[in-house]
């Protein structure tokens, strides 16, 4: 992952002084949305409600070109505003009139409309562009993966700047129409429902629609040669999965895992409540990376996730994110525990259901396997810092925190919370503090100290506050000696594989 460290306030303030007195009521939007970890992420001054992307992609040359149309509303009087984007821009129109534009920073596109925008005014922004995503990088980092037969955009915390201009932060979610034309014989995979597929003069256009709010980093594009399978879940939800034609020895294990998507979604619906979207599925492109990502309604899996055989646990993790991360998104990236703690805990619940170790046994194992001086305990899942945003502790200690909560308030309240939270915050954003307040409300207990111990202290919680009882902790050890090596539950290898390779 790369880091963007421009301080937006300074830039905005200096430009404000340059505005002539006659236009003093109008100011530039901030070049960042105000994220504590990534100050340049997203932008200020407007909100996007819909993206329409109409693109053409050439697998042979990696040339991506097309038009992005953004439906926006100004949230302040705007003389100028930014989009986040890395490719070359040919033309920008705002409400049908040519707008001036310039690049600044690593991926800021500054747009000055011919007429300033009033607060509350809607503006249709059209950006025509072309470029090779693989040739754009920030500090040597690229989110775009080339494959032998195409390319893939799937990364966290950002990937959008490699293929479309946006307000690139989970706080500004929008609906999407993604339409991509590719040479016949090649497919374009994206989020949601495939609305149409039409061929003409050697090119096939795939038009996908996501009709519920979707964060920019959860919007994905994969072009390549895929085998596509379609089905419906027991609840009637359409499933679309796609597998690169050259997955080699991983092909069988990938299918044996991802083809269980419908079964897993139905099971998760019993835990988290109704599935929040109108489509589901996953795709496995022939990328060299090792991670998986919860791209909305269409999960991204690297083939390496299946190198040691099938892994339904990673499917459970990424589909759990559809509730925890996708429908209910972070307010800021420091709230990442709301995504990873819960997705990891869903794997513990799946393990329990499959008879491969209960959540308590997994909690006992994680607690025992990390001694007090292990740097594991210095990571605070409730505010890990950008450098540790995807550290193993955010996942494992994050799931431990949920077992501690479960033991404190009991199964009835705990599972009411797991199901109630996604309904309470559906399609919105939330912070860790919001969740703590919700858990206190549902349980009627004061939980601040418990969450402080498990999420915000840079040290191993004392045994007395551990979710494990002393007896069960030692039962999971091979012997009672001081140097006892805890025995991992059967499911542990698969669970650990999910996040040991998460992220870039
Ligand atoms: Zn995850």
Automatic annotation (TrEMBL):
Residues 49-218 form the Aminopeptidase N-like N-terminal domain. Keywords: Hydrolase, Metal-binding, Metalloprotease, Protease, Signal, Zinc. PANTHER family: AMINOPEPTIDASE N, PROTEASE M1 ZINC METALLOPROTEASE. One of its GO terms (biological process) is proteolysis. It is an enzyme of class 3 (hydrolase). It holds the Pfam family Peptidase_M1. This is Aminopeptidase N. It comes from Streptomyces liangshanensis. The lineage of its organism: Bacteria, Bacillati, Actinomycetota, Actinomycetes, Kitasatosporales. Residues 1-23 form the signal peptide. Its cofactor is Zn(2+). Its EC number is 3.4.11.2. Belongs to the peptidase M1 family. CDD domains: M1_APN_like. Residues 308-454 form the Peptidase M1 membrane alanine aminopeptidase domain. It catalyses: Release of an N-terminal amino acid, Xaa-|-Yaa- from a peptide, amide or arylamide. Xaa is preferably Ala, but may be most amino acids including Pro (slow action). When a terminal hydrophobic residue is followed by a prolyl residue, the two may be released as an intact Xaa-Pro dipeptide. InterPro entries: Aminopeptidase_N-like_N (IPR045357), Aminopeptidase_N-like_N_sf (IPR042097), Peptidase_M1 (IPR001930), Peptidase_M1_aminopeptidases (IPR050344), Peptidase_M1_dom (IPR014782), Peptidase_M4/M1_CTD_sf (IPR027268).
